[in-house]
Amino acid sequence: MPHDVSNTSASHSNASGLNVTVLVSVGRHPLTARARRADQDARAVEMALTLESTSVNLLHAGQQDSDHEAAIRGYLGMGIDSVGLIEQKPQADVVPALAKALRASASQLVLTGTRAETGEASGVMPYLLAEALGWPIITGLAAVEKIEQGTAVVLQALPRGKRRRLRIRLPAIATVDSSAPPARQSAFGPAKRGVLNLHQEPSEIDEALSSWHIQPARKRPKRLKIVKSSSARDRFKAAAAKADGGGGQTLSDVTPEQGAEAIFKLLKEEGVLR
Amino acid sequence: MSELVRRDPRQEWIIRNRLHPQHLEALAQMGGAVANEWMGPNGVIRRNPHAVGFIGPNGIRRIDRSGVQQAAQAPGRSVEAKDARQRVTIETPAFMVAVVPDMAGGRLSTHDRDLLGLARQLADADPAQPGAVLAIVFGEHKETAFGEAGIDRLLHLEGERFSGYLPELRVATLQGVERDLAPRYWLLPDSTTGGGELGRRLAARLDERPAAQVWQVEADSESTTGWRCTARGAAGRDDVTRALPRVVLALAECADPVSETRHAAEAITLSQELPEVLGRIQDMGEVAVDPASVSLAEAEFILSAGNGVKDWDGYHHAAEVLGATKGASRVAVDDGYMPRDRQVGATGTWVSARVYVAVGISGAIQHLQGIQSCEKVVAVNLDEGCDMVKRADLAVIGDASQILAALVARVEQYRAEQQENRDAA
Ligand SMILES: Cc1cc2nc3c(=O)[nH]c(=O)nc-3n(C[C@H](O)[C@H](O)[C@H](O)COP(=O)(O)OP(=O)(O)OC[C@H]3O[C@@H](n4cnc5c(N)ncnc54)[C@H](O)[C@@H]3O)c2cc1C
């Protein structure tokens, strides 16, 4: 993906425009299981960087160690000078700390990934945050079209590549999923040079977590196709039949116009013609 | 005809006993010629293997196991395909299990049905205290078989207010349901078509910690709720097993859909007026997207070209006019007519289009694999016997370029008519 880096790096230092905070987490590589920048969060950062005349702040709440630091620096390598770190104990509930930090900041738009790559990863955190702050939240942000008079006009990604236009009152939270543009690469130099601004914040330990049983994912059993029929012949036929047992309509010896008419009718019935 | 089956045990005994002197007479009396099926003493269907088949032209008994001949012969006692599903009505439920189906396309999806199956499991666990499954449906729908899916109570919220994307209003409504009926469990599909989002909003609003990505729910006497659930965590790498919370976001195939019972699906209304919600999210409608920019795997409508396409300009024009995403078979890609990322099939993209139009594609197994999950397949081909025609829901036999040209003309005519109507209005 070509990125106009010069443009964005100039614009995000401009503090007069929109103030965007991106909540970033520590991801985990699906194969090597190494700590890395989380994919969806990186897309959220990318989205923030491509907005015009915004100042982008990154915020992370979590424990502090060298692995985590390397992963967080991955976001700095996208061309950002500093990231705010709220130090929390492992297994802490980060929502109170994040809500406090966001309330204190002047952020108008908060971007997050849809779901974390480690831990419970239920994807509820943005909603809890929105509830705590009393802000509206939207999912699947695909693009920000314009910001005007305290509202934002955005495109929301729907399944099957569709888009919906929404107008939301700011301040707001928006989650970004994998339909957003992919993130730019992280450069080593800026990642090294970037600053981590550490704050201390009391941790609220998540008590429920200790009663849960966590194990590597089991393969889900495949559902069997059960044919409920009183006659053995029907059951046998259903078991032995080819999956695609015809049943379609075939038009031969028709003029192209008649054929086209039949196809047109089907397309219209299915509602794919716009 | 009366539904009651009148039985003569002595007659039946004679029919079973081939050596009985009156055997043939009894058989003849029973059902026209020779009965080969009758109801046994325990209500089981008995068959006489000697009475099957017919005598062929050479005097040899032939047995046709394809069922054609048997079906033609059988109507002695017409076995009506009766709905054997048991009717269940729950008058005074001990508790409620609320389900908010996605109703994608106005109908219960398979995911919704699985979820209703799970709801039934939770509701029917204790036969002494049966629960009722409450479904909450927003907006217009086309579903007719709510009862068959296992729904006891149906809360249908319709009208102008509920059409469109209104997550805040929906959550406020569900909150109203919570106040009014206080369901024991809330089940929502963890899907991208709305359920996942609504469920998380609801959980945050009710201040309940939900279980997301649940794929298994089992009874567990040690758990505080009597149930434990297994959910995927950490991007699908871990399984989290925990007591079942009140709000559950479940994946598809979390349980088997209801198939053996029919429920009342009795319509109910809320006792309180719904609050007015200050909408901070305003729906401005869906946006037309350029079909070419949609990834093949996600595309809804694909016009796919194969070796049978000769007029490539005509094909590209047709795809633009129809507003279809372009796909191709491997041959078309290998020959350089289409880019590699458009290849559909085993070594290309597995597509899930609602309508897949295959133009000049023979339907090699590698290609058919890639279109397994397509709903409607249309084939345009010269060869009536090819596999794509067998797979297709609609096949048009003829030359691809002519049919595409005719289709383009028809769609353009339709567009012009629509434009006129709009201008007139
Ligand atoms: C390991 C392996 C992997 C493969 N993976 C894939 C894959 O991922 N995807 C894939 O597509 N293929 C794949 N293939 C290739 C596959 O086996 C077939 O060769 C290929 O799909 C055939 O493409 P086709 O149907 O376009 O061509 P053909 O088989 O040549 O079929 C052309 C069709 O067009 C019809 N036709 C001809 N002229 C006209 C006309 N004027 N109007 C209308 N119809 C006309 C013919 O009747 C015929 O049915 C793979 C093969 C192998 C060995």
Automatic annotation (TrEMBL), chain A:
InterPro entries in the record: ETF_a/b_N, ETF_b, Rossmann-like_a/b/a_fold
Alphabetic keyword roster: Electron transport, Transport
Assigned protein family: Belongs to the ETF beta-subunit/FixA family.
Gene3D superfamilies linked to this entry: HUPs
GO MF term set: electron transfer activity
Organism encoding this protein: Vreelandella nanhaiensis
Name used for this protein in its record: Electron transfer flavoprotein subunit beta
Electron transfer flavoprotein alpha/beta-subunit N-terminal domain sequence ranges: 41-186
UniProtKB/TrEMBL annotation, chain B:
SUPFAM superfamilies xref list: Adenine nucleotide alpha hydrolases-like, DHS-like NAD/FAD-binding domain
GO biological process, one term: fatty acid beta-oxidation using acyl-CoA dehydrogenase
Superkingdom, natural source: Bacteria
Keyword Hydrolase: no
Electron transfer flavoprotein alpha/beta-subunit N-terminal domain residues: 97-282
Keywords on record: Electron transport, Transport
Molecular function (Gene Ontology), one example: flavin adenine dinucleotide binding
Electron transport listed as a keyword: yes
Pfam families the record matches: ETF (PF01012), ETF_alpha (PF00766)
Matches recorded under PANTHER family: ELECTRON TRANSFER FLAVOPROTEIN ALPHA, ELECTRON TRANSFER FLAVOPROTEIN SUBUNIT ALPHA, MITOCHONDRIAL
Family designation: Belongs to the ETF alpha-subunit/FixB family.
Protein name per its UniProtKB record: Electron transfer flavoprotein subunit alpha/FixB family protein
